[in-house]
Design a protein that fits this description.
single chain, D-Maltodextrin-Binding Protein, domain 2, Alpha-Beta Plaits, 23 strands, binds ligand C2E, binds calcium ion
Length: about 600
């Protein structure tokens, strides 16, 4: 997600349309097209028509500052980039975009290339289609005072022109406002109808429901074509829920909004759950082997909130619900508070990395039989100066979204190496430590090399370091990840597959990846007291052992779970039943105080 702060007052290049409550003009149109074609999703920061560019830019709340023309002075610390030239009524105009430090790497180049490829004629065409913000066609007023015959003739001629113009405009609007993939309306379509349908009086009767389809996951599991098919299926299914006074639109690459007049709000959750269930039946209907992840956020319309803001917030919540594998959430004041916190964190995360606000915590692993500590997992914590201790569930998605997760991963790896070196210096040479890596980090072509260079600076037995790779690996990234794994293994470190058994990780992955260990996902352990649950885990452990792989269970919370795992020969256990994550200094003291010498490492 890339945030843009717009210029409300640079008509026709960019301006704030107060009636539609959104940015309009040439720039927003082109940025929306760029958004549809590229891997970035560009969203205008909702400002309700105020020019907040320098404020938002200074706080790094946005990635781009838009709508500077040749007459403006640029904000300090930025320089003009991604310039677009246009000719308006014979006058040459240029519009500039500035990038803040928060902008993802590579975005500038791609945007510049995109602008450079837009032909001048097309720019002129788009400018012609840009309606005046007042909406009053020039030239109508003089006609009113003209003489009768002349007036009649003139009005007649004008009417003809206007009718033709309107027809053309209607066609253009239809085209510009439609989503080419699903032929539903797009975000502009939603805005226009929202303006028409929703008033101060009937507002309380409307509900906005955002459906998020995890297209990233679909791209990982299948081809892009299959993901498109799923989106078309979703559009078709959701059409069945849109009444005559409702608006259904596809507002982003992975999001649908249904603006619905609710006769019975108590029923909303019910039919949304049913709709989600139908959306998930795609694989059964079309005999596909993958799952469709989808979730929704129900957003009752709020007094004084602009449409873009509501869509944005509902989208964030639906996406988060999807990540948590939840079905449907209802937007509340608490949600709003959480969103504001995320926004704040997003603005300061870069500085936090620079100022080492992230710290290493360690959660011990114990041997399943002896229950002795044998190793630990390195987990990051953010010690925020105002918010206190923050967990990865909050900041990892922010860092991933900002393209900065590799910086945290390398930082955590370096801290882990320093920890192992210190243990070795103190005479402990059999405590293994595992590190988490986001798949984006693992898929960087120079990942193995970077790690090697970093590890080289520390002295400890390499096999004590374990790299954990999470399940969700894209097919596209597979070969790079495999070669990184092989290079790392050759260098002596071990590899474990994290969250095994969740999503699509399966035993076939064990053939693809040269792994030393697998970590059974907490969800498998949660079900281990049921008959099928324990049968599945038992089979996994057996197969893993036959392949010579060490089996680790995560999220063990009770003694009964631990006992079942012992009975079915799990090797290593991690969970609150034994140890919670603790700061590295405490972990060091504990290991030095308690560890039993001679326990075998993973
Ligand atoms: P994970 O790799 O699955 O790590 C295990 C998570 O489960 C940890 O959460 C841990 O505190 C929690 N946990 C352990 N035992 C139990 C238990 O018995 N019950 C319950 N309910 N939870 C338990 P944490 O520390 O909040 O980390 C969450 C996730 O964030 C981790 O999941 C890992 O994927 C990710 N993460 C943490 N640090 C980093 C990092 O430096 N880089 C990256 N890329 N990801 C990280
Ligand atoms: Ca892990
Ligand atoms: Ca896990």
């Amino acid at each position: 997600m890339v945030y843009v702060a717009g210029n409300p007052d640079a008509y026709p290049l960019e301006y704030y349309d107060r009636e539609a409550e959104c940015y309009a003009g040439l720039f927003p149109q082109l940025l929306s097209r760029f958004s549809a074609q590229s891997r970035y999703e560009l969203v205008y920061y909702p400002t309700q028509g105020a020019d907040r560019r320098s404020h938002l830019g200074k706080n790094l709340q946005v990635d781009l500052l838009s709508g500077y023309t040749q007459d403006d002075s640029l904000p300090s610390g930025t320089q003009a980039a991604a310039v677009l030239h246009a000719s308006v009524q014979g006058e040459e105009l240029s519009c500039y975009l500035c990038f803040t430090r928060a902008a993802p790497q590579g975005l500038q180049e791609e945007l510049e290339a995109f602008f450079a490829a837009v032909p001048q004629e097309e720019i002129s065409g788009l400018l012609l289609e840009t309606p005046s913000p007042t909406g009053t066609p020039a030239g109508l007023y003089p006609a009113l005072g003209a003489l009768a015959l002349a007036v009649l003739l003139l009005v007649g001629a004008l009417l003809l022109i206007v009718r033709r113009y309107r027809k053309k405009l209607a066609k253009t609007v239809e085209y510009v406002e439609s989503d080419l993939l699903t032929s539903l309306g797009n975000a502009d379509h939603l805005r226009r109808h929202y303006k028409k349908l929703v008033s101060a009086k009937n507002r309380v009767l409307y509900c906005l429901i955002y459906f998020h389809v995890d297209t990233d996951r679909l791209h990982r599991l299948t081809s892009g074509d299959a993901a498109d098919e799923v989106l078309r299926f979703c559009a078709q299914t959701l059409r069945g829920y849109a009444g005559e006074l409702d608006v259904l639109a596809k507002v982003s690459k992975h999001g649908f909004v249904l603006l619905k007049l609710e006769e019975n709000p108590a029923q909303t959750e019910c039919w949304v759950t049913e709709a989600l269930h139908k959306l998930r039946t795609y694989p059964q209907v079309y005999k596909k082997a993958f799952e469709v992840s989808v979730a929704a956020c129900i957003y009752p319309l709020r007094e004084g909130e602009a449409l873009d803001e509501m869509v944005f917030q509902a989208g964030q919540e639906a996406r988060a619900a999807c990540d948590r594998q939840e079905n449907c959430v209802i937007f509340s004041d608490a949600t709003l508070k959480k969103l504001h916190l995320e926004q704040k964190l997003r603005a300061t995360v870069e500085q936090a990395l620079r100022e080492h606000e992230f710290q290493l915590y360690i959660q011990f692993y114990v041997d399943a039989k002896s229950q002795q500590i044998v190793g630990g997992e390195a987990l990051s914590r953010w010690l925020h100066p105002e918010q206190g201790l923050l967990l990865p569930g909050i900041f990892v998605p922010i860092l991933e979204g900002e393209g900065m997760i590799h910086r945290l991963d390398y930082y955590c790896l370096e801290s882990a190496c320093a920890f192992l070196q210190e243990l070795e210096r103190r005479g402990v040479d059999h405590f293994f430590l595992s590190c988490n890596f986001s798949r984006d980090t693992f898929a960087q072509p120079d990942f193995a090399l970077q790690c090697r260079t970093l590890i080289e600076r520390y002295h400890f037995p390499r096999e004590l370091l374990i790299f954990e790779l999470t399940e969700s690996v894209t097919v596209r990234q597979l070969s790079t990840i495999r070669s990184n794994m092989l290079a790392l293994k050759e260098y002596g470190v071990s590899i474990a597959l994290d969250d095994f058994g969740e999503g699509f990780t399966s035993f076939s992955d064990l053939q693809e990846y040269p792994v030393d260990g697998i970590k059974l996902d907490k969800r498998l352990i949660d079900n281990i007291l049921t008959k099928p649950g324990s049968a599945i885990v038992r089979a996994m452990i057996q197969a893993g052992h036959e392949l010579g792989v060490t089996i680790l269970a995560e999220g063990v919370e009770t003694e009964v779970q631990a006992q079942v795992l012992r009975d079915i020969h799990c090797d290593v256990i991690q969970g609150f039943r034994f140890h919670a994550p603790i700061p590295e200094a405490e972990a060091m003291d504990e290991i030095l105080g308690h560890i039993q010498q001679g326990t075998a490492p993973l």
